[in-house]
Amino acid sequence: MRYVNFLLTTLLALCASCTTQLDVVTIPQNEPVIRAVEKMPRGGGYSTRPKAHHGLSHSIRAGRRGGLDLRAGKAKPSYCSGATYHVLLSMVQEGIDAGVLELSSSEVQALMMQGQGDGIGIWGRWNSNGPGAAKLVKDLRMGINFESYEKAQAGDFMKIFWSDQIGKHEYGHLVVYLGTHQLHGEEYVKFWSSNQPRGYGVKSVPKRAIKWAVFTRITNITNIKNVDSLSHEDTFLSGMLRRSYSRATVRSRCAVQ
User: Fold this and answer.
1) Does the keyword Signal belong to this entry (predicted)?
2) Which of 78, 96, 119, 217 is the most buried (most CB within 10 A)?
3) Of residues 27 and 84, which shows the higher confidence score?
4) Residues 6+ apart with CB under 8 A from 248
5) Closest Cα partner for 83 from 214, 174, 179?
6) Sorting pLDDT into bands at 50, 70 and 90, what band is 9?
7) Residue 221: DSSP 8-state
8) Distance CA 162, CA 29 (A)
9) How far is 103 from 225, CA to CA, in rounded Å?
10) How far is it, in rounded angstroms, from Cα 41 to Cα 74?
11) How far apart are CA 235 and CA 38, in angstroms?
12) Of 35, 38, 37, 41, which is closest to residue 6 (Cα–Cα)?
């Protein structure tokens, strides 16, 4: 309750100085996500080339007194998993600043982006093909995963699958969901991420363009401390590079409701 009360009492003050104002309605658990998005830079271009990986690795550093030093402006150009990882780590830092989360030096180091391959470590899980974020959150017991648009709220993380493929041949996008709206009689899905071609920002696409989506809602960011309970490699996620999986398998392995 202390964390929730802190979030509620500081929401308006923080939003007054945001660089990007988002007209959304959230549940309290998702407010840290929206605050993090509002503080992120804009633009910068989209790329998955080595320059983008290099910039991301230099934008996330261990801070003083067990905190994080996050400078998303250094991660330009950017890509979707890196952009959303900054949002996740901003939630971690907010918990540290609120005094409800304390990380050891080894736990902080586990959060660093150091070129880990898909399925390896925290970053490698978040960055993997398929339901990387959903699997990580489930394994750390940080939240819930589901696939219902009716249940979705602004501030939920969302893995978009643009095709029916999951894994080796997939075409996907990791975003922060902001809601739906009607345009010219068609339903559109609005989200924030690093998007092609401009980079950091908000985008809307026709809902019919999304073949499938897995939503992830973080309900207890303090369970990030469970990092030591994870194996070095999640073979289910690293296997996404070599083979395809069914929706049924993803639902089972990620406890998708």
Assistant:
1) yes
2) 78
3) 84
4) none
5) 174
6) very low
7) G
8) 28
9) 7
10) 10
11) 34
12) 35
Percentage, residues of the chain above pLDDT 70: 91
Question: How many CA atoms does the CB half-sphere of 98 hold within 13 Å?
Answer: 21
Residue showing tokens 């940080």: 142
Mean pLDDT (whole number) for 227-232: 94
Looking at residue 21, its pLDDT comes to 58
pLDDT of residue 17: 34
Per-residue model confidence (pLDDT) at position 22: 73
Q: What b-and-e string marks burial along 163-188, b requiring 16 or more CB atoms within 10 Å of the CB?
A: eebbbeebebbbbbbbbeeeeeeeeb
Per-residue DSSP letter, 244: B
Of 122, 19, 40, the residue nearest 86 (C-alpha): 40
Across the chain, which distance is largest between two alpha carbons, in Å?
A: 53
Structural contact between residues 39 and 31, judged by C-beta atoms closer than 8 angstroms: no
Tokens coding 72: 């998303």
Handedness of CA 244, 131, 53, 115 (dihedral sign): negative
| Torsion on CA atoms 14, 15, 20, 21, rounded to nearest 10 | 170
CB contact at 8 A, 124 and 96: no
13: confidence class by pLDDT, cuts 50, 70, 90 = very low
Measured distance CA(6)–CA(15) in Å, rounded = 14
Please give the Cα distance from 191 to 156 (Å, whole number).
10
pTM of the model: 0.90
pLDDT at 12: 32
